[in-house]
Amino acid sequence: MTTEVLQTPPIAAGTTPAAAPPSDLAAFWHDFRRNTGAVIGLAIIVVVTGLAVFAPLIAPHHPDRTDSTAFLRPPVWQDGGSWSHLLGTDAIGRDLLSRLIWGAQLSLSIGVAVVVLSLVSGVLIGMAAGYFRGWIETAIMRAMDVILTLPSLLLAIVIVAILGPGLANAMIAVALVTLPHYVRLTRAAVIGELSKDYVTAARVGGSSNLRIMFKEVLPNCAAPLIVQASLGVSAAILDAAALGFLGLGAQPPASEWGTMLADAREFVLRAWWVVTFPGLMILITVLAFNLVGDGLRDALDPKLKR
Amino acid sequence: MTPDTILSVDGLTVRFDASQPLLTRLVTRTGRRTVHAVELVDLQIARGSTFALVGESGCGKSTIARTIAGVQRPTGGGVSFMGVDIAAFRTRRASMRYRRDLQMIFQDPYASLNPRWRVGRIIAEPIVTHGLLKRGRELDLRIEELLSTVGLSPSDARKFPHQFSGGQRQRISIARALASNPAFIVCDEPTSALDVSVQAQILNLMRKLQQELGLTYLLISHNLAVVAHMADSLGVMYLGRIVEQGDAGQLLDDPQHPYTRLLLDTVPDPHAPNRSRTRLAGEVPSPLSPPTGCAFHPRCPVANERCSHEIPRPVRVRKAWVSCHAVEEARLPPSLPNMLDPLNNTGDAA
Known about the structure:
Chain A has 306 residues and is mainly α. Chain A contains 14 helices and no strands.
């Protein structure tokens, strides 16, 4: 984004290599790397993303194939476990490990898609509210207040009921329910930035509204939005799981972590692994996104540097 | 308006609506409240000169600066820059020529530069906005030239603002203001956030640039030493009005208006630490409900009955205009008496 102005002539770069500051990406990585938790989180996300992408190659079994000889078989290290089902099987004999690996695909794409949808629309709406103020702001913020007054899951259920059950509609519903957080966050950050003199300088200089909004102001509002988005991925996974549990989200036999968790709730006492492993996957993934969000905030905020 | 006038402000009035929301007003039975930030200000600035506006905090000097810079709409009156009324611009395109010729330097060097942009991009922004140069080698050279003009190194273009000190940031601000080759620069307290030693450097840089580039400055300041160093003409503001304006030398050596005299008395003189001075008693009244008549009369040691109900009109005193009944009636004593029992004085008189 900033590189077009900043291309340095090759002569200068060649004569004074030591004085040349590192590129944006290198500087960012240098700051990010110092946060150990964030690096661990990033590693986990990379691994989980890898599982999701290469699920057909990694998973030992097809996620939907039932094995009628092995209902609720325990993991391999427990009595009765077998090497063909490393983490055991569920109530109808499906391999738990394979379903977890395939579930990474579904859960991650739900989380990311929901966050992208609500982040993009939330930033646009919040930017309009914060920048233009007046009746536009009042209308937008009151509409967001209305969304916030309704219990989020209940509202999501209503939206899915109107649109019809299914994964895509569940994602739209969750995105709409989480929208007010992004709108409010963006508006507050934009109002804070607009009072600063660099915005006045841009106005005095004749920059257009759109340029001030998205080139000058938005990058300075990014830090809280990035943190909210990383938390939002986990919240979206959980919300989508809740809808799946109610039969409004991912439809069986889709192997989505939240749905797996919900399906297994009646076996909590008899077969701990059926509940524990999907729960652990959600926990680890959510934790990883939060750690990375923290690290991103620290690395992206120039005020926290050095 | 003389031919060499570059900027002329006529009857400028700026008011802000500070009312509570409608519902609160209905419940508490209060009316609308208006802040009278600037009231009927007239001033002319000659090309190539420095006009300084001084006054206490909240007297409206920054509002005048923002109105002239086109980021605040006037409630009444007008600002004409190079003979064009700036309030008449309907579209952004129409105002582009004026925006190119008029730039601004800000008080806080930590807020006036976008923290996420590199210095090179900050300085390039006005050039790119006005389409003066295409991105590329020519633009890079121009940025390097601007950086050396303000005393920075060309390699600083690749750094971020947080890597610089306050004085250096103010130099970057000046480089950005110069980028579009303006004729007029509004300087809103350009040195009040800086160390004294750095202040002098920045002021000397501004003077050097003025001589080299023929710039005109509107300098907003509350620091009379800065004003004495820089200004050709001077306007003294009190509660939204200009009480005295004219030749800077005359105003500083032989001030007429009681407020100007009291303001100058507050400047410490290292050569005469024990000289007798008249204290400025009381506090600035609220611009929400300015006093009737002369706005200064509740704090003025020579105010009389007429001052409390009639707004004084400017009268000519040699090279200056003074808005004061006492000056007009020639009843001003050579040294002002202290006010022992100031009217409407809620503050500590000591």
